[in-house]
Amino acid sequence: MRCLFAIALLSTSALAMPAHAQWINNISEASFDVGAGISYGPGYFGDDDVELGPWGTMRNLTLGTEDGEEKQGFALIPSFGYIGDRKADDHEELRGLDDIDWTGEVGLRVNYVAGDSTSYAAARVGIGGHDGLVGEIGTKYRFIINDKLTLWTTAELQLGDDSFTDTYFGVTEDESVASGLRSYDPSGGIYAANVALEARYSLTPKTSILGKITYGRLLYDAGDSPVVQDRNQPEINLGIARRLNFRF
Protein backbone atom coordinates (compact mmCIF):
# COMPACT_ATOMS: atom_id res chain seq x y z
CA MET A 1 0.00 0.00 0.00
CA ARG A 2 2.75 2.46 0.94
CA CYS A 3 4.73 1.64 -2.18
CA LEU A 4 1.68 2.21 -4.38
CA PHE A 5 0.92 5.47 -2.56
CA ALA A 6 4.47 6.76 -3.12
CA ILE A 7 4.47 5.74 -6.78
CA ALA A 8 1.12 7.43 -7.34
CA LEU A 9 2.28 10.61 -5.60
CA LEU A 10 5.49 10.95 -7.58
CA SER A 11 3.87 9.85 -10.85
CA THR A 12 1.12 12.44 -10.53
CA SER A 13 3.72 15.19 -10.30
CA ALA A 14 5.71 13.82 -13.22
CA LEU A 15 2.61 13.73 -15.42
CA ALA A 16 1.96 17.39 -14.65
CA MET A 17 5.44 18.37 -15.87
CA PRO A 18 6.54 18.71 -19.52
CA ALA A 19 7.18 15.34 -21.16
CA HIS A 20 10.24 16.65 -23.01
CA ALA A 21 12.02 17.77 -19.83
CA GLN A 22 15.39 16.24 -19.09
CA TRP A 23 16.86 15.04 -15.82
CA ILE A 24 19.50 17.40 -14.49
CA ASN A 25 23.06 16.12 -14.87
CA ASN A 26 26.60 17.46 -14.63
CA ILE A 27 25.79 19.25 -11.39
CA SER A 28 28.91 20.77 -9.84
CA GLU A 29 27.36 22.96 -7.14
CA ALA A 30 24.39 22.87 -4.75
CA SER A 31 23.27 25.58 -2.35
CA PHE A 32 20.37 25.94 0.08
CA ASP A 33 19.22 27.93 3.11
CA VAL A 34 19.40 26.42 6.60
CA GLY A 35 17.81 28.46 9.34
CA ALA A 36 15.98 28.65 12.64
CA GLY A 37 13.45 30.99 14.18
CA ILE A 38 9.94 31.13 15.56
CA SER A 39 6.57 29.90 14.32
CA TYR A 40 3.17 31.35 15.19
CA GLY A 41 0.39 28.96 14.24
CA PRO A 42 -1.91 26.11 15.32
CA GLY A 43 -0.62 23.88 18.11
CA TYR A 44 -1.87 20.75 16.32
CA PHE A 45 -3.71 19.79 13.13
CA GLY A 46 -7.14 21.38 13.43
CA ASP A 47 -6.43 23.66 16.40
CA ASP A 48 -8.53 26.85 16.48
CA ASP A 49 -5.92 28.65 18.57
CA VAL A 50 -2.38 29.76 17.74
CA GLU A 51 0.80 29.57 19.78
CA LEU A 52 4.49 30.36 19.52
CA GLY A 53 6.95 27.59 18.80
CA PRO A 54 10.36 26.90 17.25
CA TRP A 55 10.87 26.88 13.48
CA GLY A 56 13.65 25.05 11.70
CA THR A 57 13.99 25.16 7.94
CA MET A 58 16.06 23.84 5.05
CA ARG A 59 14.81 25.26 1.76
CA ASN A 60 15.44 27.12 -1.53
CA LEU A 61 17.72 24.50 -3.06
CA THR A 62 19.63 25.61 -6.16
CA LEU A 63 21.54 23.17 -8.37
CA GLY A 64 24.06 24.66 -10.74
CA THR A 65 27.57 24.95 -12.09
CA GLU A 66 30.68 26.65 -10.76
CA ASP A 67 30.04 29.70 -12.96
CA GLY A 68 26.72 30.30 -11.18
CA GLU A 69 24.43 29.06 -13.95
CA GLU A 70 21.32 27.41 -12.48
CA LYS A 71 20.43 24.00 -13.90
CA GLN A 72 16.98 23.45 -15.44
CA GLY A 73 14.99 20.20 -15.57
CA PHE A 74 14.26 17.32 -13.21
CA ALA A 75 16.20 16.55 -10.04
CA LEU A 76 15.75 13.88 -7.35
CA ILE A 77 16.74 15.12 -3.89
CA PRO A 78 16.23 14.10 -0.23
CA SER A 79 13.13 15.31 1.61
CA PHE A 80 12.77 15.75 5.37
CA GLY A 81 9.90 16.72 7.64
CA TYR A 82 9.08 17.21 11.30
CA ILE A 83 5.80 17.22 13.26
CA GLY A 84 5.79 18.23 16.90
CA ASP A 85 4.15 16.16 19.61
CA ARG A 86 0.48 16.48 20.60
CA LYS A 87 -0.27 16.27 24.32
CA ALA A 88 -3.95 15.92 25.27
CA ASP A 89 -3.40 17.67 28.60
CA ASP A 90 -2.21 20.81 26.77
CA HIS A 91 -5.59 21.26 25.05
CA GLU A 92 -8.91 20.99 26.89
CA GLU A 93 -10.76 19.87 23.75
CA LEU A 94 -8.38 16.89 23.34
CA ARG A 95 -8.77 15.45 26.86
CA GLY A 96 -9.31 11.71 26.62
CA LEU A 97 -7.36 11.30 23.36
CA ASP A 98 -4.03 9.49 23.24
CA ASP A 99 -0.84 11.57 23.19
CA ILE A 100 1.17 11.59 19.96
CA ASP A 101 4.97 11.78 20.08
CA TRP A 102 6.98 14.01 17.77
CA THR A 103 7.73 12.59 14.35
CA GLY A 104 10.69 12.81 12.00
CA GLU A 105 10.03 12.16 8.31
CA VAL A 106 12.50 11.12 5.62
CA GLY A 107 12.04 10.44 1.92
CA LEU A 108 12.61 11.75 -1.59
CA ARG A 109 11.47 14.75 -3.60
CA VAL A 110 11.27 15.27 -7.37
CA ASN A 111 11.82 18.86 -8.54
CA TYR A 112 11.24 20.24 -12.00
CA VAL A 113 12.89 23.63 -12.51
CA ALA A 114 11.90 25.80 -15.47
CA GLY A 115 13.18 29.35 -15.17
CA ASP A 116 11.79 30.90 -12.00
CA SER A 117 9.13 28.19 -11.61
CA THR A 118 9.64 24.97 -9.67
CA SER A 119 7.12 22.10 -9.58
CA TYR A 120 7.65 19.32 -7.07
CA ALA A 121 6.37 16.16 -5.44
CA ALA A 122 7.66 14.52 -2.28
CA ALA A 123 7.03 11.24 -0.44
CA ARG A 124 8.28 10.57 3.12
CA VAL A 125 7.83 7.89 5.77
CA GLY A 126 7.25 8.89 9.38
CA ILE A 127 9.43 7.70 12.27
CA GLY A 128 8.09 8.30 15.76
CA GLY A 129 4.61 9.63 16.44
CA HIS A 130 3.27 8.32 13.14
CA ASP A 131 4.65 5.64 10.84
CA GLY A 132 2.56 6.54 7.80
CA LEU A 133 3.50 7.77 4.34
CA VAL A 134 3.04 11.47 3.63
CA GLY A 135 3.93 13.90 0.90
CA GLU A 136 2.98 16.95 -1.09
CA ILE A 137 2.51 18.09 -4.67
CA GLY A 138 2.98 21.75 -5.45
CA THR A 139 4.48 24.53 -7.45
CA LYS A 140 6.33 27.70 -6.48
CA TYR A 141 7.37 30.78 -8.41
CA ARG A 142 10.33 33.03 -7.65
CA PHE A 143 10.33 36.82 -7.95
CA ILE A 144 13.77 38.44 -7.72
CA ILE A 145 12.94 41.98 -6.61
CA ASN A 146 16.53 43.17 -6.32
CA ASP A 147 19.95 41.88 -5.25
CA LYS A 148 18.78 41.61 -1.62
CA LEU A 149 15.07 40.69 -1.73
CA THR A 150 13.58 37.53 -3.24
CA LEU A 151 9.94 36.42 -2.98
CA TRP A 152 8.31 33.04 -3.61
CA THR A 153 4.63 32.19 -4.01
CA THR A 154 3.57 28.58 -3.42
CA ALA A 155 0.44 26.49 -3.97
CA GLU A 156 0.48 22.97 -2.54
CA LEU A 157 -1.64 19.89 -1.82
CA GLN A 158 -0.67 17.70 1.15
CA LEU A 159 -1.31 13.96 1.19
CA GLY A 160 -1.20 11.21 3.79
CA ASP A 161 -2.04 7.51 3.88
CA ASP A 162 -4.57 5.83 6.20
CA SER A 163 -2.01 5.40 8.97
CA PHE A 164 -1.21 9.12 8.98
CA THR A 165 -4.82 10.30 8.97
CA ASP A 166 -5.78 7.75 11.66
CA THR A 167 -3.03 9.12 13.90
CA TYR A 168 -3.89 12.81 13.67
CA PHE A 169 -7.58 12.86 12.72
CA GLY A 170 -8.98 9.52 13.89
CA VAL A 171 -10.80 8.74 17.14
CA THR A 172 -10.83 5.14 18.37
CA GLU A 173 -13.74 3.60 20.30
CA ASP A 174 -11.79 3.83 23.56
CA GLU A 175 -10.85 7.47 22.88
CA SER A 176 -14.49 8.24 22.07
CA VAL A 177 -15.62 6.92 25.45
CA ALA A 178 -12.89 8.86 27.28
CA SER A 179 -13.24 12.15 25.38
CA GLY A 180 -16.90 12.34 24.42
CA LEU A 181 -15.96 12.80 20.75
CA ARG A 182 -17.58 10.52 18.21
CA SER A 183 -15.45 7.65 16.95
CA TYR A 184 -13.96 8.37 13.55
CA ASP A 185 -11.92 6.38 11.02
CA PRO A 186 -10.70 8.72 8.24
CA SER A 187 -9.36 7.54 4.90
CA GLY A 188 -6.03 8.61 3.41
CA GLY A 189 -5.55 10.93 0.46
CA ILE A 190 -5.43 14.70 0.13
CA TYR A 191 -5.86 16.14 3.61
CA ALA A 192 -4.92 19.84 3.20
CA ALA A 193 -4.24 22.63 0.71
CA ASN A 194 -1.78 25.48 1.31
CA VAL A 195 -0.93 28.78 -0.33
CA ALA A 196 2.09 30.71 0.91
CA LEU A 197 4.18 33.83 0.40
CA GLU A 198 7.83 33.62 1.40
CA ALA A 199 10.51 36.32 1.49
CA ARG A 200 14.28 36.25 1.88
CA TYR A 201 16.19 39.43 2.60
CA SER A 202 19.98 39.18 2.40
CA LEU A 203 21.91 40.81 5.21
CA THR A 204 25.22 39.52 3.84
CA PRO A 205 26.03 37.22 0.88
CA LYS A 206 25.62 34.23 3.24
CA THR A 207 23.12 35.37 5.89
CA SER A 208 19.47 36.28 5.38
CA ILE A 209 16.21 36.99 7.17
CA LEU A 210 13.49 34.52 6.16
CA GLY A 211 9.77 35.14 6.54
CA LYS A 212 6.81 33.04 5.46
CA ILE A 213 3.03 33.48 5.66
CA THR A 214 0.92 30.37 4.99
CA TYR A 215 -2.81 29.88 4.72
CA GLY A 216 -3.74 26.21 5.00
CA ARG A 217 -7.15 24.53 4.96
CA LEU A 218 -7.93 20.98 6.03
CA LEU A 219 -9.96 19.06 3.44
CA TYR A 220 -12.13 15.97 3.00
CA ASP A 221 -11.93 13.34 5.77
CA ALA A 222 -9.33 15.34 7.70
CA GLY A 223 -11.49 18.46 7.73
CA ASP A 224 -14.54 16.46 8.86
CA SER A 225 -12.73 14.97 11.87
CA PRO A 226 -14.22 15.65 15.33
CA VAL A 227 -10.68 16.47 16.43
CA VAL A 228 -10.67 19.52 14.13
CA GLN A 229 -11.82 22.74 15.77
CA ASP A 230 -11.11 24.90 12.70
CA ARG A 231 -10.41 23.85 9.11
CA ASN A 232 -8.45 27.07 8.50
CA GLN A 233 -4.81 26.77 9.57
CA PRO A 234 -2.84 30.03 9.16
CA GLU A 235 0.82 30.20 10.15
CA ILE A 236 3.59 32.82 10.27
CA ASN A 237 7.30 31.92 10.37
CA LEU A 238 10.27 34.24 10.91
CA GLY A 239 13.92 33.36 11.25
CA ILE A 240 17.58 33.76 10.30
CA ALA A 241 19.14 31.55 7.64
CA ARG A 242 22.62 30.74 6.44
CA ARG A 243 23.28 29.94 2.77
CA LEU A 244 25.33 26.74 2.44
CA ASN A 245 27.25 25.89 -0.74
CA PHE A 246 28.67 22.52 -1.73
CA ARG A 247 30.85 21.80 -4.76
CA PHE A 248 31.36 18.37 -6.29
From TrEMBL:
The residue stretches assigned to a coiled coil in this entry are none
Q: Where in the cell is it found?
A: Cell outer membrane
Q: Which InterPro entries match?
A: MipA
Please tell me where this protein is predominantly located.
membrane
Alphabetized UniProt keyword annotations: Cell outer membrane, Membrane, Signal
Signal sequence coordinates = 1-21
Q: Which family does it belong to?
A: Belongs to the MipA/OmpV family.
The name this protein goes by in its record: MipA/OmpV family protein
The organism named in the record is Paracoccus broussonetiae
Q: Lineage of the native species?
A: Bacteria, Pseudomonadati, Pseudomonadota, Alphaproteobacteria, Rhodobacterales
